[in-house]
Amino acid sequence: MSFGDVTPAGPLFLGLDLSTQSLKGILIAEDSSVVTEHSVQFDKDLPRFGTTNGAISGPAEGEVTSPVEMWLEAIDLLMERMKAAGIDLSGVCAISGSGQQHGSVFWSKDAESLLSSMDPSQSMTSQLSPKAFSIQRSPIWQDSSTTKECRELEEAIGGPQALADLTGSRAYERFTGNQILRIRRLFPEAYAATSRISLVSSFIPSVFLGAIAPIEVSDASGMNLMDVLTCKWDDKLLEICGGPELRVKLGPEPAPGGSILGKIGGWWVKRWGFNPECIIAPFTGDNPATVVALSTPGDAILSLGTSTTLLLSIPPSDTPPARFTTSHLLSHPTTPGAQIAMLCYKNGALAREQVRDQYVGKDWGKYNECVESTQPGSGGIMGLYFPLPEIIPPGVQGDFFFRLPTSPSSPPSPLSPSSIPKELHPRLILESQFLSIKSRISAILPPHSPPLHRLVLTGGGSANQTIRQLAAEVFGMNVYVPESKEAAAIGGGVLGRFAWWRRERQGEGTFEEMVAGMVEGVRKVAEPKGDGSVYEGLVEGYRKCEEMVVRACDA
Ligand SMILES: Nc1ncnc2c1ncn2[C@@H]1O[C@H](COP(=O)(O)OP(=O)(O)O)[C@@H](O)[C@H]1O
Ligand SMILES: O=C(CO)[C@@H](O)[C@H](O)COP(=O)(O)O
């Protein structure tokens, strides 16, 4: 939806989400209602980069990158599309947003001068790329090439639990500190030529500011470089991953959400008609931004984008929450002392899409018919699908099928893929993906937490009513969705609004005070039928199948 040459009066806030497959731009009003949405799909709209679902695999084993020039060109194109839709950007008071987590951008020594002197008659892409970057293809979260670096980091810091206690996570291949360690080892010249390193979430505000922005606290939690409780860089981790020069390359200590990084650069005012008083606030990771947009105490948020990600808000407490080697704890983007518990799966929407294409054709309608024509529990068959090396459980890859035993003391029996009826696969992947999450939720909830009472879905897959209904059945919760499935971009708009709202109050006020009394922007779309006993009874069976998959992959 977009307005012609009439843009609503009143302050507007632009939220951007630079995710794996696309760049989304959402304009929201002061009450966080959506005014207009636009997007750029990387594969379809920018085919010259040759990405598949926004990424390039290889050449090294496990290597997955995205061209930074593609991200720049997507921003240029998004602005063109918003202008063509008649959006008057002079009403935008603040810009913030989100980026896919863990991805890294390596700026060259010419970057700052190039950023600060862009000619409004030229595109950003033509002026910044490739000269502003010492590495042209940015490692992203789907990369799994840094297992060796992960083990080195854990050993140097005292083991996976010690690293999780310090940073909120054990070492993960996609986490930026391990990516930096690998780049420093394999491409020392490029590393030496790097003046600054950004996350995707600090890369975007840099181009709006015309200067390199600091990394934001919540997204910094996805690097294995920051103390998750103090929100400061940890010198020992920096030394291990990037040497004595890394602190300079990372810039200042991570910036909290709701702060003001500066005003928009002159290039944006002259080329696109932004108000010179428009402020730029720190962007955050797409998942923390989703929490900003949707989180209400007692809600579980499930993002069904390229990654499947479960998010739980953890309020401030006198005792820091436990950290685990099987999940993530992130600092909260807007509330000091609060955190976010996160489970993240690499085989999310693309795995579901692959099952759709392989067994029912490129048609979500047919996919849904298969789900609805098969029974809950799939007649005792379990299917686990990991086309990419998975994060949870770590390192497993391939498709695995089992028949659950009738006796709880017996193990599941492996089945051959050829024995599985084609029409069962759409249900099998949804049930196993959701059962994996269901089997882990209670472990990541802080002790004495109130029971979760709602599941809020977002991301591309949340548009699918069949998936919504199956989620309600598996989790035994009422399912809600926001006005737009682009919660990360909306969260970005809300972050910009928060920075603007605080400036209006001379820097005073909390995020909770700002959102208090706001209309909740979610609606109920599904509720569980029956007593949910089918899926409660399948959790242990799922766990046994997963254990067999881990053993088979370790063999
Ligand atoms: N009707 C649908 N049913 C299930 N999945 C869908 C549907 N529509 C889109 N998707 C999935 O949504 C994914 C894109 O989600 P999105 O949240 O935009 O991704 P990201 O933000 O990670 O780039 C696609 O990979 C696609 O498979
Ligand atoms: O790695 C993670 C979180 O740890 C992923 O959630 C990325 O942040 C990608 O996000 P999407 O493209 O799936 O939105």
| CATH topology tier name of the largest domain | Nucleotidyltransferase, domain 5
Q: In the CATH classification, which architecture of the largest domain applies? A: 2-Layer Sandwich
**Share in β-strands:** 15-25%
Radius of gyration (Å): 23 Å
Poorly predicted segments = 1-5
CATH class of the largest domain: Alpha Beta
Number of separate strands: 24
Which small-molecule ligands are present, each listed once? adenosine-5'-diphosphate, 5-O-phosphono-D-xylulose
Task: Estimate the helix proportion, in percent.
Answer: 25-40%
The average pLDDT is 95
Question: What is the tally of helical segments?
Answer: 22
Biggest pleated-sheet summary: 7 strands, mixed
The count of domains is: 3
Give the overall shape, derived from the CA principal axes: globular
- CATH homologous superfamily heading of the largest domain: ATPase, nucleotide binding domain
Key structural traits:
Nucleotidyltransferase, domain 5, single chain, 3 domains, 555 residues, binds 5-O-phosphono-D-xylulose, alpha+beta
Describe the overall structure.
The protein is α+β, with helices and mostly antiparallel strands and 555 residues long. It has three domains: 12-282, Nucleotidyltransferase, domain 5; 288-346 and 442-526, ATPase, nucleotide binding domain (Nucleotidyltransferase, domain 5, 2-Layer Sandwich); 349-437 and 532-554, ATPase, nucleotide binding domain (Nucleotidyltransferase, domain 5, 2-Layer Sandwich), CATH 3.30.420. Helices cover 37% and strands 21% of the residues. The strands form six sheets. Strands 1, 2, 3, 6, 12, 13 and 14 form a seven-stranded mixed sheet that branches. Strand 22 (454-458), helix 18 (465-475) and strand 23 form a beta-alpha-beta unit. Helix 5 crosses helix 7 (176-186). The longest helix is centred in the last third of the chain and has 20 residues, at 425-444. The structure holds adenosine-5'-diphosphate and 5-O-phosphono-D-xylulose (5SP). Adenosine-5'-diphosphate binds next to helix 15.
